[in-house]
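FIELD: query
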Amino acid sequence: MGYLVRFDCLVQEPLFSFKPYSPMFKFLYKLVNLKLCLFPFVLFSAEEQKKPNIIFLLSDDQSTYSLGCYGNKDVKSPELDRLADDGMVFDRHYDTTAICMASRASVMTGMFEYKHGTNFGHGDMLLKTWEKTYPVMLHKNGYQTAFAGKFGFDLRDEPNGKRLPLPEKDFDKWGGGPGQTNYNTAKNESMKHYANDYPHSTRSYGAFGRDFILESTKSDKPFCLSISFKAPHKPATPDPIDNHVYAEKTFNKPANYGRNYGAHFSKQSKQDRQYERFHSWNYSDKYDEVMATYHQQIYAIDVAVGMIRKALKESGTHKNTVIIYTSDNGFFCGSHGYGSKVLPYEESSRVPLIIYDPRHSNSGKKLRAKALTGNVDFAPTILKLAGLPIPENMDGKDLMRVYEDPKTAHHSSLPLINVWGKVPTHVLGVVTEKRKYLYWGYAAEGFKESEELYDLEKDPMELTNEMKNSKNSKSIKRMRRLYDQHLAKWKNGSVSYNDYERFGTLFDRNIPWSERKSALSSKTYQEEKNFKKVN
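FIELD: result
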């Protein structure tokens, strides 16, 4: 890091003498008052420089092919595409758990799901875990903090304790809400004062961000703004003001669209709502209509991002504010004949990531990074930007290393997790920069253990399972070894509450199903019996 000249020094022995109130005396007096001392040159470290402002923007259920900067020529995303041009696009970014609650907890804590212990069907986050999240640590260390939108999870003192209120007091400005929140601004208690001007919630969050930025300029403290948009989460509810954007639009379907391109996926993956929603959510018969609605919701986010960036420029903070934009999980949108998210395939787990640091020389070069990154990286990145140490419990790494050199490696591998929903769909996988391995361990009557291997360099749309290709024996061995290493970390590091420990056994591919099935809970054991009846 560089050094700057420190200007608040006192001159004990002047090198020259000047008559009081002479022109030269007045000039030097003004310099001293401005803390400008030209002699002697006292240096101070970069830690004493002005800390950057930080903006973290999170969409909900946004796939990579919803943005122009990720190659979709059918969509309109001018503000986000401009942000991508100004900053850096990350092409290999994954949500290690592709579902709202767990992913948002990983964003805040920098930890994998089995370590923060937070997800639907498992349990809430413990207060002691929340106290080690990036918003709390920044707030305690001099940052003005604000949150708006879908908070995504609840807190408890202890696993079976009483549910606590949302942590509004841990922020200087609050526009958050419980559960899924509402697209109707008037129904979001902390945001309803925006309802007259912005009746749809997406633009209201842009207004919240705008106002917080403008208010923050009254203080000499840096700020951290976190906004979690509800859009484009179902039920699809676009802002009517944008109805013209995709009216009568016909969309090109991805090359892996439809059931024919999902036949090689495991039987286990077809047992929950992700499979049936290809039809029930009308990807099969009303694709253009469904996608127009989906993209229209993201267009409103794009507008909100524009509102926020305009406020940065108006406030004069645009040159010292780092912006991070991403999504909590992706969305199938008919690829492979699936709908929704959750499962660790590309459309569901790989999501957009754009970072813009106006202070960096790599900005404005339209650079892209292929390094493997994950949602656990945001907390350590934000802490490092704020000049704070990264706690040892965090699994993520500082993303600005990649911003410094987009060709550098980041993670060698990341786990991909699903322990939510119907039992057969529970899966653990591992992804590297080039390959993905999935282990579907459920092997009750009518099912067999299933492994999938994809060469993401040659086959980014996951059209061919390479497990039966004899030429891949070395790759299979390596990916299985990486899988075992991640499972070992699960066994050693999972929380002892909220039903995570038993998955260390259920996901162990070296233990036969006859022994692993004993790790099923009484609830899941009953589900297994039900599956025997219908399969």
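FIELD: remark
Residues 1-21, 25-48, 525-535 have pLDDT under 50 and may be disordered.
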